[in-house]
Amino acid sequence: MAVDKLKSIKLMGKTVRIVYEDFENGDWGRCDLDNLTILLNEKCLKDKNHHWWTLVHEVTHMIFELSGVAFMENNEEEAYVRCVENLVIPWVQENKDLYE
Question: Cα angle vertex 37, ends 56, 12, to 5°?
Answer without folding.
Answer: 60
